[in-house]
From TrEMBL:
PPR repeats lie at residues 202-236, 338-368, 369-403, 470-504. This is Structure-specific endonuclease subunit SLX1. The lineage of its organism: Eukaryota, Viridiplantae, Streptophyta, Embryophyta, Tracheophyta. Keywords: Endonuclease, Hydrolase, Nuclease, Repeat, Transit peptide. It holds the Pfam family PPR_2. It comes from Vigna unguiculata (Cowpea).
Length: 776
């Protein structure tokens, strides 16, 4: 039959017969093969039937549908259990040299034959892999618009299956890099490495290869290219050497970079600044200065980039005098007014603690850019001058400077510090108005702000609208729910985060364990704690142990809490002992409380709050003599208990109150309101808790107990705000027990929600109860 078909030549009937026979096997066997049911016997029969058809195809070059036939071969050969027959097919095609595919296709079946023939000899040869991939692309072409350079690459691939010369490979590499096809360029470099000595490779090719490695961030590729370059006897020019040096620095290989830098026969300012910049980025500021002085002696070149880098080094060292010398040099060089230099100077002076110098540099900027404004606002915020920073933001807005997402992020953090809800809402509106409504940094700052101030609905709304969320966004929301006593919601968000494939870190576990601790979710908290190292490979730290100690303390399991401290795989920290001391105060356990206090005194002898907690423990247990001893210790150490202060924002204006404060213009109204509230809540069983008083207070101080700062702030808020709005109050100290009980009843009789952030946590008072569960 094969002989008869060969004699027919290009007869149409032969065409029809061959394609009909091929189609039968394609319909029956090929489709079965694609369905996954093609077993070994089917493969053998398919190959036996296909073999004579292929011989016909070799001699009948005008048969149609060769692309389908080639695709069929490519699918069959890799999964075949018997390589002999497929190899015969491929070798027959190779010997025939018949172009079975049209000139418009990037590959041909003869190339496939050579590819498989070479695969038999060396299965790992890179040229074979490229031929296979090119052949596969050629047999299944995808129409695509290409530029002139890409069209040249494709044309080259048509002829690439004849082993190309090194010059051809070099041209191919350069064209691929021009088309941003960096990985393919490195594949062609593999061919160059294996089959060519590289003596005729030019500098432009090496430059293209190094550029490809830089774009791929492949330090291994750079090392291969550089090694091949040196072994081939090529002397790289300064530009190529700078790129190789830059790649080493970019990947953090500073020792290798320094060795390469020292071996460079020629160095320019780019070489020096690449090395110095790498040292600054890795925190080696002293060595950066030493190298800077060497550069100054050798080339005496200093542009704006040089001074920006050295100013960063000065900030890293925290030496303002060195920074001033660099500033002086920049002025002498005429680059002191450069915007990048000015912004770096503002940052340096701020980090060195000289906010006045930072503002002086800002005032002298010829053009106050967005970056300049952001730098000075961030500087004031860094040093706690929140009101001044907010004032500068208003000045930036009025000046017409462009406000970006970084500006808004800073302002939101300032508002969080000032407890300024109105300004934060304005910043939120500006975020949307300026087109940064989807920015992850600014939106995460908003989630954090709303979470910190109990606006969990607003926080959840911002979070849900974020197109992209990172672990910081999730942590902010989970922590917000936990801090405000909504432990169930925090655990739910944690589980949702895991379902979406986000990997938790130690901050995530701290947030969710704190939520379980605040809400008393003991069983769920222990499950999450044990899953840290078991499922997520996160080792529990001291803060995680402190959460579990607090959780045990809330249940009254103080012996188990103490055992957990002793079983920790590291030395117990102050947080762990402080959690145990707080648990002892709430459960009135003197023995363990004194033990925890002694540990804390040895670790933090000057920290006042440790003494205050023990003092409250003695008072609650009726140990007035021991409480007096604690007071004597405080006096001997010179530690004074400062007056507590509270503040509240009304109509965008913060108001601060001290204990017994009478300096406010509405003092009479405020005190009358407090007195009336005390009368109302006394009907619900309120009585002053005298046991919380210190043992040596006089009658006047007992009277002042009724006018603690948080009670004055609440009265002021009730007078000056609409009845449907919640009160947001910040307290610098821990809320005392008497005020805590009083505020629960005030929230009940007034029907208002009162949110107080004290030194330990947030308290949400609603309808006679608090979110802390009376454990704080």
């Amino acid at each position: 039959m094969l002989h008869q078909c060969e004699n027919f030549g290009n007869n149409v009937n032969v065409h029809t017969w061959c394609m009909w026979l091929l189609q039968q096997y394609v319909d029956v066997n090929y489709r079965t093969y694609l369905g996954g049911n093609f077993n070994v016997s089917d493969a053998d029969s398919f190959q036996i039937a296909l073999f004579p058809i292929l011989h016909i195809c070799i001699h009948v070059s005008s048969l149609p549908h060769y692309e389908e036939l080639g695709e069929l071969i490519l699918i069959l050969l890799p999964r075949s259990q018997h390589l002999l027959l497929p190899m015969e097919i491929a070798l027959s095609l190779h010997k025939s040299q018949t172009p079975l595919l049209g000139s418009s296709s990037p590959g041909n079946l003869s190339s496939l034959g050579r590819c498989f023939a070479s695969k038999e000899r060396d299965r790992c040869h890179p040229f074979s892999r490229i031929c296979c991939s090119s052949m596969k692309r050629g047999l299944k072409p995808k129409p695509k618009k290409v530029g002139h350079a890409e069209r040249q690459v494709t044309v080259f691939e048509d002829n690439a299956f004849r082993k190309p010369s090194s010059s051809g490979i070099c041209r191919q590499i350069e064209k691929l890099v021009m088309c941003n096809r960096y990985r393919e360029a490195m594949e062609w470099f593999e061919i160059l490495e294996v089959g060519h000595d590289g003596f005729d490779v030019g500098g432009s090719t090496y430059d293209a290869l190094v550029s490809a490695c830089v774009c791929l961030r492949s330090i291994r590729g750079v090392k291969r290219v550089y090694s091949y370059m040196i072994n081939s006897g090529f002397e790289p020019d300064l530009f190529v050497m700078n790129r190789v040096l830059f790649m080493h620095v970019r990947c953090g290989l500073m020792l290798d970079a320094r060795k390469l830098f020292d071996e460079m026969p020629e160095r320019d300012s780019a070489s020096w600044m690449t090395m110095i910049g790498g040292l600054v980025d890795t925190g080696n500021f002293s060595e950066a200065f030493r190298l800077f002085l060497c550069m100054w002696e050798e080339i005496n070149d200093g542009g704006s980039r040089t001074f920006v880098t050295m100013i960063r080094a000065s900030a890293g060292l925290g030496l303002v005098q060195v920074g001033r010398q660099i500033h002086s040099c920049a002025l002498k060089r005429g680059v002191g007014d450069d915007n990048f230099v000015s912004c770096s100077l503002i940052d340096m002076y701020s980090k060195c603690g000289s906010i006045e110098d930072a503002h002086c540099v800002f005032d002298q900027m010829p053009e106050k850019t967005t970056v300049g404004w952001n730098s000075i606002i961030a500087s004031y915020a860094l040093h706690g001058y929140s009101e001044e920073a907010l004032s500068l933001y208003c000045g930036m807005r009025d000046s017409g400077a462009t406000i970006d997402h970084f500006t808004i992020s800073i302002v939101i953090r300032i508002c969080a510090r000032l407890a300024s809800l109105e300004h934060a809402k304005q910043a939120h509106a500006a975020l949307v108005r300026h087109g940064y409504g989807t920015d992850i940094v600014a939106n995460t700052a908003l989630v954090d702000f709303y979470s910190k101030w109990g606006r969990m609905q607003d926080a959840q709304h911002v979070f849900n609208r974020m197109r992209c969320k990172n672990i910081i966004s999730w942590n902010a929301l989970i922590g917000g729910y936990g801090n405000h006593g909504q432990g169930e919601e925090a655990v739910e968000m944690f589980e949702q985060m895991l379902q979406e494939g986000m990997i938790p870190n130690h901050v995530t576990f701290l947030a969710v364990l704190s939520a379980c601790s605040y809400s008393g979710l003991s069983e769920r908290g222990w499950e999450i704690f044990h899953s840290m190292s078991r499922d997520h490979k996160v080792k529990p730290r001291a803060m995680h142990y402190a959460c579990m100690i607090e959780l045990l303390g809330r249940e009254g399991l103080l012996d188990e809490a103490y055992a957990l401290i002793r079983s920790a795989p590291f030395k117990p920290t102050t947080n762990m002992w402080a959690a145990l001391l707080t648990a002892c105060r709430m459960n009135e356990n003197l023995e363990l409380g004194k033990l925890a206090a002694e540990k804390l005194y040895g670790m933090e002898p000057e920290k006042l709050c440790n003494y205050v907690v023990l003092l409250n423990l003695y008072n609650s247990c009726g140990k007035l003599k021991e409480a007096a001893g604690v007071l004597q210790t405080l006096k001997r150490k010179g530690l004074r208990m400062l007056s507590a202060c509270s503040w509240i924002e009304v109509k965008k204006q913060p108001y601060v109150f001290l204990c017994g404060d009478k300096s406010h213009s509405q003092t009479k109204e405020i005190y009358d309101k407090v007195d009336s509230l005390m009368v109302e809540i006394s009907r619900y069983g309120y009585a002053v808790e005298n046991e919380t008083l210190l043992p040596d207070v006089d009658e006047e101080e007992q009277r002042i107990l009724k006018y603690h700062s948080e009670k004055l702030a609440i009265a002021f808020g009730l007078i000056n705000t609409p009845y449907w709005t919640p009160l947001q109050i910040t307290q610098g100290h821990r809320v005392c027990g008497d005020c805590h009980n009083a505020i629960k009843l005030i929230a009940k009789v007034t029907g208002r929600e009162i949110v107080i952030k004290d030194a330990s946590r947030f308290h949400h008072f609603r309808n006679g109860s608090c979110s802390c569960g009376d454990y704080w």
